[in-house]
Amino acid sequence: MTADFSEYLSAGFVITRQFDRPAHLSSRLLPDQMISTSGCLASFLPDTWCIEWAQDDPDGRLANAQTFGLDGTALDRLTTWATAEFDRSLGWPNIILNFETVRHIVDAFLPAKANVRILELGLHQTLQETFIEAAAPQHAMAGQPGVLRALQQANNRLTGGRPIGFEPLVFDVALSCSWLCNGLESTVAERLGITPNEHGLIESFEDGLRCVDYISRDDVGAEPGLWLPWLLVDHSGKFAFTA
Predict the structure, then answer these.
(1) Read out DSSP for 80-141?
(2) Of 71, 142, 175, 197, which one's alpha carbon is 20 to 30 angstroms from that of 28?
């Protein structure tokens, strides 16, 4: 697919892994190996499990670290660094605010044979005001979500990479559920004639808008919140072990 990067704003980066297609999703429409930026489906590094003051339990922290090939010692190092960097180069809950920090995480913490994907989130410029209004903290004590911080940075244009498709995601305090959490790929294909591409994503921005308009209807029963199509840009090829 192609995308005119001049029309999109960067909402930050995530480091994640592919995962096996869940049983409730269509084997006819979706690939065996999936990719997503929803925490309901995918794992991320960093995330709350490597922030000292977050309420993740110790066993869960280690299990998440092991997903990325890290042992207990590496987890301790990452946790010390990530806690210090939170609200500086890292945003809630798993957003990396610039590519330089992505590079540092890869070089300093990930094992040489890590099997990860480096993704940048992009928001079409026509949706910026709608999202900023919905994502603004509702009271003084509420923190600013990482995607909002990234969008409001002075240097907030996409940084190259390979566009792989659009993921419909809902915002509620942070980006949360994907359209796939409810298995909507089959319903969308049937009702709208829109099918996922080889990555399990929507191929065009226009089809992404049609999807979120449909998903937002009350009769569909998806999670409440602001549904938008987010462009995923793959930077994995810039790292030897993820190419």
Answers:
(1) HHHHHHBTTTEEBTTEE-SHHHHHHHHHHHS-TT---EEEEEEEEGGGHHHHHHHHS-SSTT
(2) 175
Average pLDDT over residues 25-41: 97
| Cis peptide leading into residue 58 (ω within 30°) | no
**Residue 206 phi, psi (nearest 5):** -60, -45
Q: How far apart are the two ends of the chain, measured CA to CA in Å?
A: 18
Written as six digits, the tokens of 121 are 């989130």
Nearest 5°: the CA angle 240, 232, 179 is: 130
Measured in whole angstroms, the distance separating CA 51 from the mean position of its chain's CA atoms is: 18
How far apart CA 92 and CA 124 sit, in angstroms, is 21
Q: What is the pTM of this model?
A: 0.95
User: For the chain, how big is the Rg over CA atoms in Å?
Assistant: 17
pLDDT digits (tens, 9 = 90+) for 202-240: 999 999 999 999 999 999 999 999 999 999 999 999 987
DSSP secondary structure code for residue 196 in this structure: -
